[in-house]
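Something for you to look into today, if you have time. Could you write out one complete protein record for me, on any chain you like? The space below this message is yours for that.
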Amino acid sequence: PFSQRYTEVKIPSGIKYIGTGCFMNNSIVRELVFESGSSLTEIPHSSFRRMGNAPLSDGSTSIDPIDCGVTGDIFVPSGVETIKSRAFAGVHMKSGAQIHLPDTVDSIEDWVFSQIRTDGAVDLSDTKIKSLELATFYDSSPGSVTLPDSLEHIKSSCFFTYKPKIDKNFIFGS
């Protein structure tokens, strides 16, 4: 479904694998739901990249969308262990929408949350990740990022050009 225009993406619990870039550039998505009991163990490279990032009339994409963006929280399902590079890069979310990762996640690759737009939170507190890789939050604007107690390393450019819209908080541990 590359560059399609779906308003809702529901990943059924029986899906064991989604491909690289599977839902990339779905610009008018308003809801991303993983059904309970999901069989996924990995979120592949660029799977949801630029979701909710509506195009402007000139074909470019809006940086701070008014009438686009994922409206609800994104709950990555329990059982997912790895989130590959750029999986959620460029995702635009409506005001207050958040991203939650489960306690089964032990690895996130580089650029995973780069260029996301939300004033909500990105909650990594339950994960077992030990390292934030290159440019994890590059050019992003979440309202807060909650980091896990397991974190040992924050690599180069992790928060480079982090763009606060409101007072930002980095919360280390629980």
